[in-house]
Design a protein that fits this description.
Layout (H helix, E strand, L loop, with lengths): L10 H7 L6 E7 L11 H10 L10 E5 L5 E6 L1 H8 L4 E6 L2 E4 L4 H4 L10 H4 L7 E6 L40 E6 L2 H7 L17 H10 L3 E6 L2 E6 L7 E6 L1 E2 L2 E3 H14 L3 E4 L1 E2 L9 H11 L3 E5 L18 E6 L3 E2 L2 E5 L4 E2 L16 E2 L12 H4 L7 H6 L5 E4 L17 E4 L1 H16 L5 E6 L3 E2 L27 E4 L3 E4 L18 E4 L2 H18 L5 H10 L22 H4 L6 H4 L4 E2 L4 H10 L4 H8 L22 E6 L5 E12 L5 E8 L4 E6 L2 E4 L5 E11 L8 E11 L4 E11 L3
Helix pairs in contact: 7-13, 8-9
């Protein structure tokens, strides 16, 4: 096999060779108080603003009007028209649209949420019964049992939303469980043209499966029996089984468009949701250009908790997305269940793998010829590297193959994800894939036939170690603000069983005509709604808590030790994982209900954070809808002084031998009155960390006390452009509660 060379055409060269300039969708931020009285509606005024910059032959079309989390509109414009619009006195910013993509049972029990407990988070919160979770995704399949409304009370009186009815989504699609459903496609169609309604549904109904799956993870009812193709048998339940759901469909065949996502945020806030769950992501850009960050700030400003997936770009560093500090950024871990499907080779060796399949199987005791896809003719690359025409289930089946072994590449390492295949198939890690290839090569050299079979072993419980950081889970450091550790926490995201639509096969392939009530999927998309549901439970148990307080409770009570009693490992390589992999740790719901202390943050604290991020007043207004005064922000000191539940500092070694910084934090007592907390410090290697005072004495619940953390370190020898990261912990304890925060020191050698 030679080296595959792929040529990429840069955006610059594409622009220079384009024969014509095309319209693109832009999101326009307008001054809130600017509408002249001569216009009856904002939309009328926005259309007038557009017509002033468009050529007479261009139709004026406003795609969406925003007013809850953002003040403005979206429209399709030429770049020159966008520049003219930007120059109007009432326009604050014109933001180019991004396309986002989806980031694609046993987890409640694994998380310690048991219905039999007489006290605990489920009981204390009444299973989240009066809370509403808004799921921004691919829609929902309302007929699934996970969304039944048996024994639920009346719809909360605060609810202002609606169930948008269409030909395939009748008025009976909503109930006391699914209390709202909308869809947003104007941005999608502005770029891609009118949707093909033979392959997509112009309604809140889910024709993909992702949205149904994530919604049931967050708030699915108890369903028994539940399984997929006979695997993962048991009771299926979401995190907040009595919480109400509102589905906002924004993702279509070509992706999820910013203008539609922002419209969904706008509606969800106006409708009255308590939590927003968003399992989509894209490129990291400054917050004032990021529609998700802007929408999430508007939601948090109204007291709504926003949970978003960290992305599936792992195991490489700097891959985490949705990194704004007012968003809970969720990575993925494993649970203590897997689906072994081992490969038995003709030489007698057994190679471990995972797979789910229940169709006509391989004959017991029979060995089958084994062919390496990379040597199967043609260019020798497409099949082995899954380029263009991937050698996958239906292709293998049509080609006469009886089974398939999916092998990880070096980058993916040992992380294994289960798929529901259309033929007997298993996935193996990179090192085991090498062993299979070596066996095939050896057989070829000796002119003998390589053979194998796949042995499916069903569902295995009690797997150790667990949890493990999933190989695909996106990693830090935070590409936009390294002083804010991201991801925040991890939650179950590998091989998760949840509800599935009726008209989509479990493999997702058009040729798959099998039908299942539940399906097994993996991704930070699955981890995110776990935390969304947990946030609803915490909000129900503690209505007075802010979104930042809820996130703090989840972060400071999380754990980093697996079921062997050792630090969680990284699935991709088997090594010990780090804070850049798991953030503060893996969520621990029962402890989060009673964290003792919380690090609270109010919206003005975020304004100070943005000021200290060197954003302009205009940039800050785009995000916060506030006329910011950055003169007071300097009192906050620096960007790392946002009252975040973790501590991160980056030292640039500009010839400095000794470097130091400090963090100011404030904690609020939500535990017991008359409690005394003592600090324990485990400093990062090679650093001196001190905390003043070393004792916090609280007289009442709700009392706030401050402390200062000082960090000193010496320069280390690094190559130009390289970095070194060390981590430690700061723990406040009153003997009952342990309030734990990671502290990260990064040394960076400039080029």
């Amino acid at each position: 096999m030679g080296i595959l060379l792929v040529f990429f055409l840069s955006l610059l060269s594409l622009a220079s060779t384009a024969s014509r300039v095309e319209q693109k969708t832009f999101i326009v931020r307008v001054k809130h108080e600017a509408k002249p009285s001569i216009f009856t509606t904002h939309k009328h005024w926005y259309e007038s603003s557009l017509s002033s910059v468009l050529s007479p032959s261009t139709p004026t079309q406003v795609l969406h009007v925003y007013d809850s989390v953002f003040h403005g509109f979206s429209a399709k414009l030429l770049p020159t028209e966008a520049l003219k619009l930007q120059a109007l006195p009432h326009v604050i910013a014109v933001i180019p649209e991004q396309v986002r993509y989806l980031q694609t049972t046993r987890s409640p029990l694994f998380l310690g949420l048991k219905t039999t407990d007489k006290a605990g988070l489920l009981k204390e919160s009444d299973f989240g019964s009066d809370l509403v979770i808004g799921v921004i995704d691919t829609g929902i399949w309302p007929e699934r049992q996970s969304f039944n409304d048996r024994d639920l009370g009346p719809i909360p009186s605060k609810w202002n939303g609606q169930c948008v009815t269409t030909e395939d989504f009748g008025s009976d699609s909503c109930n006391k469980k699914l209390i709202g459903a909308r869809y947003f496609c104007s941005g999608y169609e502005a770029t891609n043209g009118k949707m093909n309604e033979t392959s997509e549904l112009r309604s809140p109904r889910d024709s993909d499966g992702h949205g149904t799956h994530t919604a049931s993870i967050a708030a699915g009812r108890y369903v028994f029996p539940a399984s997929t193709l006979g695997y993962a048998k048991g009771v299926a339940a979401g995190m907040a089984p009595k919480a109400r759901l509102a589905a906002y469909k924004v993702c279509w065949n070509a992706g999820c468009y910013d203008s539609d996502i922002l419209a969904a945020f706008d509606s969800a806030v106006a409708d009255g949701v308590d939590v927003i769950s968003l399992s989509v992501g894209g490129a990291v850009v400054p917050y004032y250009l990021d529609a998700i960050a802007i929408g999430a700030f508007g939601a948090a400003d109204k007291g709504i908790f926003v949970s978003a997936s960290a992305g599936n770009g792992g195991p490489g560093g700097l891959t985490v997305t949705n990194v704004a500090p007012w968003v809970a950024t969720i990575g993925a871990g494993t649970i203590d269940r897997d689906f072994p499907a081992d490969v038995k080779l003709g030489n007698g060796k057994v190679v471990p793998g995972v797979g789910v399949y229940n169709g006509p199987g391989l004959s017991s005791g029979r060995m089958y010829p084994l062919v390496y896809g990379g040597s199967g003719g043609g260019d020798g690359y497409s099949s082995s590297l899954c380029l263009e025409e991937p050698l996958k289930g239906d292709v293998v089946k049509k080609a006469g193959g009886v089974g398939m072994i999916l092998a990880n590449g070096v980058f993916d390492g040992e992380g294994l994800v289960v798929d529901c295949h259309v033929l007997p198939a298993t996935a193996v890690g990179a090192s085991n894939a090498d062993e299979i290839r070596r066996y095939i090569d050896s057989a070829s050299k000796s002119n003998s036939l390589a053979t194998a079979t796949i042995i499916f072993k069903g569902t295995r419980l009690g797997v150790r170690p667990a949890p493990v950081v999933a190989s695909f889970s996106a990693r830090g450091p935070n590409p936009e603000t390294p002083e804010i550790l991201k991801p925040d926490v991890i939650a179950p995201g590998l091989n998760i069983l949840a509800a599935w639509p009726d008209k989509v096969g479990p493999s997702g392939l058009p040729s798959d005509y099998r039908r299942v009530e539940f399906n097994i999927l993996s991704g930070t998309s699955m981890a995110c709604p776990h935390v969304s549901g947990l946030a609803a439970l915490l909000k129900a148990a503690h209505p007075e808590w802010s979104p930042a307080a809820i996130k703090s409770a989840l972060m400071t009570t999380s754990y980093t030790v697996d079921n062997r009693g050792e630090t969680m490992i990284d699935e991709s390589n088997g090594n010990t994982s780090t804070v850049f992999d798991f953030g503060s740790g893996h969520v621990h719901p029962t402890k989060a209900m009673d964290p003792g202390l919380v690090y609270d943050i109010n919206p003005m604290d975020y304004v100070d954070f943005l000021c200290n991020s060197n954003y302009t007043i205009n940039n800050i207004q785009v995000i916060t809808r506030r006329n910011a005064d950055c003169s007071g922000a300097k009192r906050a000191g620096h960007i790392g002084n946002l009252n975040y539940p973790s501590f991160s500092v980056v030292f640039l070694q500009f010839g400095n031998h000794k470097m130091s910084t400090h963090f100011i934090r404030q904690v609020t007592n939500v535990g017991d009155p008359n409690s005394v907390y003592e600090v324990t410090i485990r400093p990062p290697g090679g650093t001196l960390v001190t905390v003043e005072p070393q004792q916090l004495v609280f007289r009442r619940v709700g009392q706030k006390l401050n402390f200062v953390v000082r960090v000193e370190t010496m320069a280390v020898k690094l190559a130009p452009g390289s970095t070194s990261m060390k981590s430690g912990w700061i723990v406040w304890s009153d003997g009952k509660h342990n309030v734990t925060s990671p502290i990260i020191v990064t040394m960076q050698q400039p080029l």
